[in-house]
Design a protein that fits this description.
Layout (H helix, E strand, L loop, with lengths): L1 H24 L1 H4 L7 E3 L5 E3 L20 H6 L4 E5 L6 E4 H6 L6 E2 L1
Antiparallel strand pairs: 1-2, 3-4, 3-5
Length: 108
């Protein structure tokens, strides 16, 4: 009985590890929109935090994907550049920027 319980526990543990590794490697399983949030590369281009390149270049760029202040400012009708001393400076949509805590972020 103890060996079958031990084998069952090992089986469950291995399945959990396998499932966790699959979820970590596949952003589609996670299902979160901001998992592809971008950061600025040294050349001023955008790169994905997960290292995934998007193939469709004609898609509408969201404010959160803009990695530099100049790119964010070019879309001033929809986006705001917000600075923070505690967190990274980021570009947010107008409604998102309005909801940010003023103690943490200062938006243009």
């Amino acid at each position: 009985m103890a060996t079958s319980l031990s084998r069952f526990s090992l089986f469950v543990l291995l399945n959990l590890v396998l499932l966790a590794s699959l979820c970590k490697s596949s952003p589609e399983i996670v299902g979160h929109r901001n998992i592809h949030r971008t950061i600025s590369a040294s050349g001023g281009s955008n790169r994905s935090l997960l290292g995934i390149r998007r193939s469709n270049q004609n898609q509408v760029v969201e404010c959160g994907e803009l990695a530099s202040k100049s790119k964010c400012s070019q879309r001033s009708n929809r986006c705001r550049w917000c600075r923070s001393e505690v967190l990274d400076d980021m570009c947010f949509s107008k409604p998102e920027a309005w909801r940010l805590p003023p103690q943490v972020f200062s938006c243009d």
